[in-house]
Amino acid sequence: MNDIHLDIQQVDKIYGTAASAVHAVKGLSMVVRRGEIASLLGSSGCGKTSTLRMIAGFEGVSKGTIKLAGRTLNDLHPVKRNVAMAFEGYSLYPPLTISDNIAFALKATKHGAKEIAEKVSAMAEMLEISDILDRYPSSVSGGQQQRASLGRALVRDADLHLLDEPMGQLEPQLRALLRGRIKHYIKENGVTAILVTHDQAEANALSDRIAVMEGGYLQQFDSPEKLKDQPNNLYTGTFVGEPPMNTFSAKIERNDTLVRFILDQGVSLSYNISDFSPNVIDAVLALQHVVVGVRPYAIKRHADGMRATVVANHWLGDQTHIAATLAGHSVILVEHDRATDKVGDDIYINLDPDNIHVFDRDSGAAVSHGADIAR
Amino acid sequence: MEHQSKLETVLRGAALLLVVVFFMFPIFWIFLMSLQTNETILRVPPSINFEPTLRNYKALITGKLETSAASLEINFLQNLWNSVFLSVASVSLALLLGVPAAYAFARHKFKGSEDIAFTLLSFRFAPPLLVLLPLSLYFQKMGLANTYLGLIWVYQLICLPLILWIVRGYFEDISPDIEYAYRVAGHSWFSTFRKIALPLAGPGIAAAGLLAFIFAWNNFIFALVLASADKQPVTVGALAFITASGIQYGQIAAAIVMSIAPTLALALYAQKYLVEGLSLGAVKG
């Protein structure tokens, strides 16, 4: 389970010539273990699809090495890489039926006709497309084409499965159902998969680890829980999580017993020094300016807390999102009960020391998570 | 579609009829001429009341042209064969060279690729006569004058740019991911080109091939200058009907009918490919 399967070391991708170069991926290093599901998560243009296409061999590697199952892929033809891929744009072969499309890659292998038919039918059942197997891609919906494209990739017995936004076109209920089935299938068959997505819920549900990318750089590659609880830097902290982390820039002061994060408009957060480990206090005091982050669901009401003014209150059916202003900053709170606060009402909130994340304002690097120093 | 009034329907029908008559009447008239003798053709006023005869066709097929003055040898069937051979061979060669080139231009943007593609297109800009005189001198020096090889080579000026530019557009319309999907499934570049790109661009290739065939078939000036009687296609061969004893309208008409027939048949046959070619946009990226 722990052996290295995909090994990406110091990979760069530069498109175009020197004059108009686009540096899409910068110094990417990551290791995916056999049987692991890893996601590449990031906004458009962050380099995730470029990374996927370099692994598949559709784009050359400008610098660095990519190894899969011990073989260096850099100069290997896509044919010889033994990777399967589901494309964001489906890319089914128009002249073939859905069934033939799924069976296509299997026919190039030594599988017998009966075995292929069984595999295709099982895959179609899992993806809920059994009823359209005899139809042509042009006569089925986008969501059905997408599932056929996913099936064509999953049905293969490849060293690595690359899934590029594989469920983007599906309706939410189906997506939720298929996530579970696909994860089960992948784990059951010992498949190693890389999923590219900008949907956090999908990445969280499917992945063992998520690689957050931005501006061509890998920001952090960790389990979904760790990304949320211990973000490496301000970007990951604010990108992961919905609604996003609240942030306040602050200056630091301390006396014998208290450490104070001074926000604007005379508002400050005061904590006992004993709330934090000593090295956190040292690290925080070494900085002039910090950014304090707190997750929306970690903000609690407290009679002695800071005053904030409600600007919006939305009940989403299972939780309340309250937007408020605190010392000129916007704050979002998530509560599980229906809140009755109206726009303009004052609420009093508390930021528990266990739930605050401190970042260096200049570099964005994480300093502490709750009481503990960031690693 | 809006609902049409009766008047609108009638007017639309009349307009369409007018267009059809405008384009088809000359061909219909030529067909009537081909069944008449020179005497009935040249009657004033012209009339469609005549005794049909197959004399003109017989003369073309037997190669003996009987005029009022003398009996002439013509080799129209040889001309017809030349047309078929030159057009088929030129288009085949142009497809062989042009389709892979079009694929390369569509898929790989290399330094100067646009310049090369544009240079090929620019062959269509120059008036043929401009290049023909120097070309005929070169051809005589190189021994290519009055050879099929030479003519097929020159016909590439007509066919190659046409095929390259039309087919390139069709390849560009096919999502490269469809080919990538085939390649990661364990297929080589060439088999991807053959099994995926070619069939998907098939209607476009057929359309471009047909168009090139028509252009090659209708060419007059290249063959007039670069070939002598035994290598000339029908377009040039028809000049033989202007004889010392007058213009043989009946035979010219029969020759036209016979030379239209192959392209017409091809166009009718390829019609469904042309329609498919237009609906290629249904392939989603």
Give the topology, please.
The complex is a heterodimer of chains A (375) and B (285).
Chain A lengths: L3 E12 L6 E12 L3 E5 L6 H9 L6 E6 L2 E2 L10 E4 L11 H10 L5 H14 L15 H13 L5 E5 L7 H17 L4 E5 L2 H7 L2 E6 L2 E6 L1 H6 L4 H6 L6 E9 L3 E5 L5 E5 L5 H8 L3 E6 L4 E17 L4 E7 L2 E7 L10 E6 L4 E5 L5 E4 L2 E2 L2
Helix pairs in contact in A: 2-3, 2-4
Chain B lengths: L5 H29 L3 H4 L13 H8 L1 E3 L4 E3 L2 H32 L5 H10 L5 H15 L5 H26 L2 H9 L4 H30 L2 H6 L7 H4 L4 E2 L2 E2 L1 H30 L7
Antiparallel strand pairs in B: 1-2, 3-4
Helix pairs in contact in B: 1-12, 3-12, 4-7, 4-9, 5-7, 7-9, 8-9, 9-12
Protein model, in words:
The complex is a heterodimer of chains A (375) and B (285). Chain A folds into 2 domains: 36-50 and 77-239, Rossmann fold, CATH 3.40.50.300; 246-373, Nucleic acid-binding proteins (OB fold (Dihydrolipoamide Acetyltransferase, E2P)). Helices cover 24% and strands 36% of the residues of chain A. Chain A has helices spanning 48-56, 98-107, 113-126, 142-154, 172-188, 200-206, 224-229, 234-239, 278-285; strands at 4-15, 22-33, 37-41, 63-68, 71-72, 83-86, 160-164, 193-197, 209-214, 217-222, 246-254, 258-262, 268-272, 289-294, 299-315, 320-326, 329-335, 346-351, 356-360, 366-369, 372-373. Chain A has a 7-stranded antiparallel beta sheet with strand order 13-12-11-14-19-20-21. A 6-stranded mixed beta sheet of chain A has the order 6-7-8-3-9-10, sandwiched between helices. In chain A, strand 19 and strand 20 (366-369) form a beta hairpin. The two termini of chain A are 25 Å apart. By secondary structure, chain B is mostly helical. Chain B has 2 domains: 6-73, no CATH class; 76-282, MetI-like (MetI-like fold), CATH 1.10.3720.10. In chain B, 71% of the residues lie in helices and 4% in strands. Chain B contains 12 helices and 4 strands; from the N terminus they run H-H-H-E-E-H-H-H-H-H-H-H-H-E-E-H. Chain B has a two-stranded antiparallel sheet. In chain B, strand 1 and strand 2 (71-73) form a beta hairpin. In chain B, helix 4 packs parallel to helix 7 (148-173) and helix 8 packs across helix 9 (189-218). The longest helix of chain B has 32 residues, at 76-107. Chain A binds chain B through residues 56-58, 77-79, 81-85, 87, 89-95, 104-105, 108-109, 138, 145, 149, 152, 156, and chain B through 175-178, 180-188, 196, 199-200, 282-285.
